[in-house]
Design a protein that fits this description.
The complex is a heterodimer of chains A (114) and B (110). With 114 residues, chain A is mostly beta strands. Chain A contains no helices and eleven strands. Classes of the chains: A mainly beta (114), B mainly beta (110).
Chain lengths: 114, 110
Amino acid sequence: DGGITQSPKYLFRKEGQNVTLSCEQNLNHDAMYWYRQDPGQGLRLIYYSQIVNDFQKGDIAEGYSVSREKKESFPLTVTSAQKNPTAFYLCASRDSLLSGNTIYFGEGSWLTVV
Amino acid sequence: DQQVKQNSPSLSVQEGRISILNCDYTNSMFDYFLWYKKYPAEGPTFLISISSIKDKNEDGRFTVFLNKSAKHLSLHIVPSQPGDSAVYFCAAVYGNKLVFGAGTILRVKS
């Protein structure tokens, strides 16, 4: 089945640690996205990538880093510089070659700082 | 700068009645709009979309209306069902950037 797979579903991070959230898609989509959702708030864009080896900062990129070495993969690293990383993280993808097409989301990853 | 706004944090509707969810935007470059439904701890699922060249799109119980001059879109759900209770996000697209509103919690009472 085609889709977007995020892992792990739950992740605990100690203060000062970097952690990486995985996002893999087999939809052959060009564009991929990372969003963050905090309780009671909407989805805020962290980073997005339109093609392999290219990515742009979203609205809240500070403390995060990404890579796009393969079309199907867009991992997000939450660095120790991110002061408030506890949130629900959503990865998404979209076929940028088709105008007006929808974006598809993974099931999300919960990150908690302990 | 919030380019997409959903000014109602929550909405409560009786089962069988109409639910109307509203969304306003500020960027006239947006050319496509989408509505997503989200349950807690799950990824959003796509509901319905509309291109900026249209003013209405209908899919079953869901209808989206777009008023470009007012920079306003709305989602109508008729009839509302208890299973519709969720958070609804509107989103706007330009280029490859997708911007979401803060969401509206819909509660459908039986």
